[in-house]
Amino acid sequence: xxxxxxxSFKTFFKIGAFTLGGGYAMIPIIEEEVVxxxxxxxxxxxxxxxxxxxxxxxxxxxxxxxxxxxKMRRTPGAIATTFGTALPSFLxxxxxxxxxxxxxxxxxxxxxFRGIRxxxxxxxxVPTFNLAKSAHITLVNCWIPIACALLIWGLGVNPIYIxxxxxxxxxxxxxxxxxxxx
Length: 182
Prior knowledge:
With 182 residues, the chain is mainly alpha-helical. The chain contains 7 helices and no strands. Helix 3 crosses helix 4. It is globular and about 60 Å long.
């Protein structure tokens, strides 16, 4: 059996087990493991896979791991990385479901979760800034993600409409407004 399957399963299991905050908090860790350390894919491919994973329905962390596994070894690779990512969460939720009722009134447990919340915000903020930098978001075009965030948060616009509108606008810009290269 190919060593990749075992190594990719263990890599994504570790990421899934030790990352709090969901898929977006996993981005820098996945990038470090997959792009920098193991060099399974390059930075540009990683950014493309993030965009695809965000656009697909389902859990972001599972989507990105599935796409990375598929890119590397097609369906068997996708299965290995997907199970590696999802299994830790499944096991943790199973344990919580079995024992949570015993701990929900314990003050130090509630305090611990209140302390974790701000750290999770930071874990999500860092990849957001890194993605903005990689996507060449500058002071000139920073209004686009800000406007999109405000439309979603402030006006309750469905993110699917934002994605569709952004795709159409990007197509039109590339087709009609983008300066041609010599």
